[in-house]
From TrEMBL:
Residues 60-147 form the Peptidase S54 rhomboid domain. It comes from Photinus pyralis (Common eastern firefly). GO terms for cellular component: membrane. The keyword ATP-binding does not apply. It is found in: Membrane. Pfam families: Rhomboid. Keywords: Membrane, Transmembrane, Transmembrane helix. InterPro entries: Peptidase_S54_rhomboid_dom (IPR022764), Rhomboid-like_sf (IPR035952). It comes from the Eukaryota. This is Peptidase S54 rhomboid domain-containing protein.
Length: 150
């Protein structure tokens, strides 16, 4: 009977240490924001989530902070697990500075602005959005297009 190979912590540690800089920084930022949301001293969800009625010129930071804030630990862990390999591949292909510029530029703000316009203009609602799922779906879409072309 063949032996079942167990989980190797050395392989997991090696994978984590080989992650590119921006990918590691995003994972750490997501975890730090989740830890900061635990105590009730500061309502992080109210501060950084994308709420269409609260997006003004003074609170435009919401267009960039909402992917870093998550509802709970399950939401944060699932987003980190899904995002890590996709972002690692993207960053290895395009570089750290390009990834930084794209992820906190058009890959976050354009979908956020589209969401605000659709939510306010068409749906007439005011639902808060948070989580890195937007990055996961953007990167999955890029991978799907790349696979289709090859």
């Amino acid at each position: 009977m063949p032996a079942i190979r167990g989980f190797s912590t050395l392989r997991a540690r090696s994978y984590i240490f080989r992650l590119p800089l921006f990918t590691r920084a995003i994972i750490i930022a997501i975890l730090v924001f989740w830890i900061l949301s635990i105590p009730s001293l500061w309502d992080l969800h109210q501060w950084g989530s994308l709420i269409p009625d609260k997006v003004t010129f003074a609170t435009a930071y919401r267009l960039s902070t909402f992917p870093l804030i998550h509802l709970n630990v399950i939401h944060a862990v699932l987003n980190v697990v899904a995002l890590t390999p996709l972002m690692e591949r993207f960053e290895n292909e395009y570089g750290t500075l390009t990834s930084l510029a794209l992820f906190f530029g058009p890959l976050t703000t354009v979908p956020a602005l589209l969401y605000v316009v659709i939510e306010v203009g068409i749906l007439r609602a005011n639902n808060a959005v948070m989580g890195a799922s937007i990055w996961v779906f953007l990167l999955l879409g890029m991978e799907a297009i790349r696979t289709y072309r090859s």
